[in-house]
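Worked example

This section walks through a single chain of length 202. The input is the sequence exactly as stored; nothing has been trimmed or padded.
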Amino acid sequence: MPLLLATLNPGKRREFLALLADLPADQLRLPADLGLDLNVPETGQSFAENARLKAAAFAQASGLPTLADDSGLEVDALDGAPGLYSARYAGPGASGADLRRKLLHELRHIPPPRRARFVCVAAVAQPLPYGRVDVVEFFGEVLGEIALAEHGENGFGYDPLFYIPDRGATLAELPDSIKNQISHRARAFQSALPHLQSILAA
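Given that input, the structure is written out below as tokens.
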């Protein structure tokens, strides 16, 4: 049975496909392949709850095993903000550039190191009889700092500001081959991979 990758975000879609390159490409489906355009409200109180909500909604709508994620940036000096509201930090419809400008403005009086972490929870939902779903979660994070200015053209969202001291670069400066080994989403998906392989094998 195919696996549905439940994201409508173009940047995430590219990362999903790259991170799941070890799975058979002909068994992966995107919402557009099925004519699905679900807008699942992120009403959870944690990344895990939001990931579960999205995975379950797409699994129920499609009847397919579904992978979804929720992720965000937590900045120590902002008491964990933007956190769950990372994608909406600068208001509805804000671009990645808008989000980065807002974050730099909020941190304008905070000297380095401005410690932060990216968090991702991947949820895998399997449809069960009578409209029920079984959901399993996988966690990943990467520690870093918020740079004083943007650096790099790769990635999306906050990547040009997220500096990793051990690498001497922001996520947006790293090639995909490195980012897709160490990012928060990469780590969550690496943990999920054996489970996904077993689903596809079945």
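What to look for: The radius of gyration is 17 Å.
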